[in-house]
Write a structure and sequence with these properties.
This protein has 284 residues and is an alpha/beta fold. The chain folds into 2 domains: 184 residues, no CATH class; 82 residues, no CATH class. It has 8 helices and 9 strands. Strands 1-7-6-2-5-3-4 form a 7-stranded mixed sheet, sandwiched between helices. Strands 8-9 form a two-stranded antiparallel ribbon. Helix 5 packs across helix 6. 32% of the residues are buried.
Length: 284
């Protein structure tokens, strides 16, 4: 397909990065294939995430076609640019058409970008992940590539004033290893704070049985910081999850007191959060 709009937009974005002196770090860009289709699945913390996620694929010479809500395409300014860059509109009330359009793009060798959370996370941790990215990659027979963004929320995010002229902002883009997962495999973009998405993906699919001694057991090992309790919940995971979150909050309260965490990285409730990671690689 003809790309007369995408290259000028990329050039303008790079110029803006240079003017604002953004400290952009890209790691794992080699995981994006130089040819053939691929699904790029990223976390979502800012309205500008599609710019930076697409920037992470540029070292491989790829132009990413992002799936975005159709309201953006109705905008007088953004709409023509989105259509010119061949992004894919998504009508949440009738998503089958956009799914088929993305599937067609993948089969023709395009890289399709998706935010599996389907919305911006106000807490900056990963919300419940939809299965569309997995299903697209599996049906099209293309690799699934996880990505993690951090720092873009300091420029423009949901529920906070935008600060598009802020200078020297550190932005980290991590691209994970590509894989060809079956439809049931969850996207491995997770957060270091132990979000519920990461834990529920490890929970047993059925109600745990009882051991010969009459005690209930599960296939999930308890967290090392959590003492065993007798009042198990249905699967025994929720109690360990609560203890895991308490340990994370205590650690980040200490880091905040030491001045190691920026106030801008806090939720409105004041609870400190860890930045997202891909396969255990921490973001600054």
């Amino acid at each position: 397909m003809s790309d007369r709009v995408y290259p000028p937009v990329i050039a303008a974005a790079k110029l803006m990065f240079k003017v604002l002196d953004l400290q952009i770090t890209v790691e794992g860009a080699h995981n994006v294939p130089r040819t053939g289709g691929a699904v790029l699945a990223s976390n979502h913390v800012s309205y500008l995430d599609f710019i930076f996620a697409g920037y992470g694929a540029r070292p491989s010479g790829r132009l990413t076609r992002f799936m975005a809500k159709h309201e953006i395409f109705a905008n007088k300014i953004a709409g023509p640019l989105m259509r010119g860059m061949h992004h894919i509109p998504v009508d949440r009330s009738a998503g089958q058409a956009s799914y088929q359009q993305a599937l067609s793009a993948l089969r023709t060798g395009e890289v399709v970008g998706i935010f599996p959370e389907a919305t911006i996370s106000r807490s900056f941790t990963v919300k419940d992940i939809k299965s569309g990215a997995n299903r697209l990659a599996h049906e099209a027979g293309v690799p699934l590539i996880p990505a993690a963004l951090w720092g873009t929320q300091r420029l423009w995010t949901k529920g906070r004033p935008k600060n598009l002229t802020q200078r020297h902002v550190p932005v980290t883009i991590l691209i994970g290893e590509r894989s060809r997962p079956p439809p049931t495999t969850p996207v491995t973009v997770c957060c270091a704070s132990g979000c519920r998405t990461c834990w529920t993906s490890r929970r047993p699919a059925t109600r745990p049985s009882r051991a010969p001694g009459g005690r209930r057991h599960t296939s999930v090992a308890p967290h090392p910081r959590r003492k065993k309790r007798r009042n198990w919940t249905r699967t025994g995971t929720d109690l360990r999850l609560q203890g895991f979150h308490k340990a994370c909050r205590a650690e980040w309260s200490l880091r905040t007191w030491r001045g190691e965490v920026e106030l801008g990285d806090f939720t409105p409730s004041g609870a400190g959060l860890r930045p997202p990671v891909v396969w255990g690689t921490s973001l600054p």
